[in-house]
């Protein structure tokens, strides 16, 4: 190329266009490949789980079924991380108390710690008595049923995550076990009283969670936010609220989170919670006084005082979730392992450590790769959260589980947390309406707000509300139907 051509402006324009094309191609390639990265890493993890099971069960009976079950268990754990963990981290992220990266890092550490250190070492026979195991006849049929239950639950949670609906992974497993049980042994095999209690939890869990969260938000608004001297009110009430949170979580973890280490009854757990709550209250009085020095008398200043308690509560919720829900989710895999080793499928199921490792690591990968979508949904797309509102949701989750355990009510941690978000949002709507009516009584000449404007100011997005409620209602039947179809497919192939 000559010097004259190199200096020609037309040549320079052509070069710029070519470079722009390369740049656009690079951007397009990056955009197209980004969605492939997550599924690729997930696929590698699933394959590694299967290889690990193959090495552990080399030359053993039914080793192929165990390998397939390990792959399905890894797939299920990935979906738990993508869907279920959002309920613990969503409020803290929505309130800007945690960044998305910080939330994922905390959840990965505490979910894994909960699963590995305090994970339930025994799962009741066949997902807490959903079906009578002896009705299945033999261990082979039982393993096929658990395989179908595991895959159907994972597929359903995957679909719910894609739609953007936080659902109960435990209910998904329950539905899968029920569907496979009906397909293999008929309707009589199902414990319908247990299923009735689970159906009742669809209503009990979110309503209890919503009422408790709304009650604490009312307390914060009436005793702190609506006071003339907000900082003075916060110095009095924030230590009390943090003490209640510490006591509630101490009792919750004593009751639910450390059962593998030591079994504690309800009265002992409440005493432990009360002692830790009082100690925390005493410690927080000087801490909040010092933290509030120099703060302006405005609502924005109050957010600072709730930031750290909110982060701590999110971490503790993740630990408790890892300790409880992971074991339930990998229960069918543990049942298959036990049945293949000993042929026993009618007694309580012990969960081997390698199965818990698959659950813990799967949750971590699932959260890291696919979790942000549901975290944003729970944290900011249902209703607007700030640290005070998010704190109410976290506190509601711990207290509601304790109350439900005391009353013997079956509840879902997923439904409680999301119900708490709804409760906060609907309370804010009610409170806003109340204040508008009060202002209208004080100023009767003020023109009324148009109906369309009132609808636009709704603080809970109705579309998300209806999507989530619908997903909750159909989780058990959808997982059951899918599981029955998968079981019949496996049965047809194997017989």
From TrEMBL:
Pfam families: PHO4. Its main location: membrane. GO terms for cellular component: membrane. It is found in: Membrane. GO terms for biological process: phosphate ion transmembrane transport. The chain crosses the membrane at residues 36-57, 63-81, 93-110, 142-165, 172-192, 198-220, 232-255, 261-283, 304-323, 351-370, 390-407, 465-494. It comes from the Bacteria. It is a multi-pass membrane protein. One of its GO terms (molecular function) is phosphate transmembrane transporter activity. This is Phosphate transporter.
């Amino acid at each position: 190329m000559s010097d004259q051509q190199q200096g020609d402006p037309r040549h320079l324009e052509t070069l710029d266009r070519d470079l722009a094309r390369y740049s656009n191609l690079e951007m397009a390639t990056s955009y197209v490949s980004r969605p492939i990265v997550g599924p690729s890493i997930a696929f590698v993890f699933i394959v590694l789980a299967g290889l690990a099971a193959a090495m552990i069960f080399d030359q053993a009976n039914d080793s192929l079924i165990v390998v397939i079950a390990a792959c399905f268990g890894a797939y299920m754990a990935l979906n738990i991380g993508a869907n279920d963990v959002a309920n613990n981290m969503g409020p803290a992220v929505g309130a800007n108390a945690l960044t998305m990266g910080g939330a994922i890092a905390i959840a990965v550490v505490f979910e894994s710690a909960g699963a590995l250190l305090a994970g339930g070492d025994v799962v009741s026979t066949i997902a807490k008595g959903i079906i009578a195991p002896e009705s299945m006849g033999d261990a082979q049929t039982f393993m096929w049923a658990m395989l179908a239950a595991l895959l159907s639950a994972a597929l359903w949670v995957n679909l719910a995550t894609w739609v953007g609906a936080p659902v109960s992974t435990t209910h998904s497993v329950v539905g899968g076990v029920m569907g496979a049980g009906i397909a293999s042994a008929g309707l009589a095999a199902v414990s319908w009283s247990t299923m009735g209690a689970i159906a009742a939890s669809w209503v009990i869990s979110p309503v209890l969670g919503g009422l408790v969260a709304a009650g604490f938000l009312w307390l914060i608004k009436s005793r702190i936010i609506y006071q003339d001297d907000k900082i003075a009110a916060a110095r009095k009430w924030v230590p009390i609220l943090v003490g209640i949170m510490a006591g509630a979580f101490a009792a919750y973890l004593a009751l639910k989170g450390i059962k593998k280490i030591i079994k504690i009854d309800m009265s002992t757990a409440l005493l432990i919670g009360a002692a830790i709550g009082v100690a925390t209250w005493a410690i927080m009085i000087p801490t909040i006084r010092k933290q509030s020095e120099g703060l302006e008398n405005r609502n924005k200043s109050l957010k600072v005082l709730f930031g750290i308690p909110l982060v701590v509560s999110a971490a503790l919720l993740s630990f408790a979730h890892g300790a409880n829900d992971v074991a339930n989710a990998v229960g069918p895999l543990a049942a298959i392992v036990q049945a293949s080793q000993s042929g026993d499928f009618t007694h309580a199921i012990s969960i081997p450590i390698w199965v818990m490792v698959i659950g813990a690591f799967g949750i971590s990968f699932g959260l890291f790769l696919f979790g942000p979508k549901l975290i944003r949904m729970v944290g900011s797309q249902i209703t607007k959260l700030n640290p005070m509102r998010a704190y109410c949701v976290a506190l509601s989750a711990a207290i509601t589980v304790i109350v439900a355990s005391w009353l013997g009510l079956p509840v879902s941690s997923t439904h409680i947390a999301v119900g708490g978000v709804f409760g906060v949002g609907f309370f804010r709507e009610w409170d806003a309406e109340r204040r508008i009516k009060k202002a209208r009584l004080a100023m009767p000449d003020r023109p009324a707000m148009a109906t369309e404007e009132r609808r636009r100011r709704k603080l809970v997005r109705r579309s998300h509300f209806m999507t989530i409620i619908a997903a909750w209602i159909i989780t058990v039947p959808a997982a059951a139907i899918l599981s029955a179809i998968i079981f019949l497919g496996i049965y047809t192939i194997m017989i």
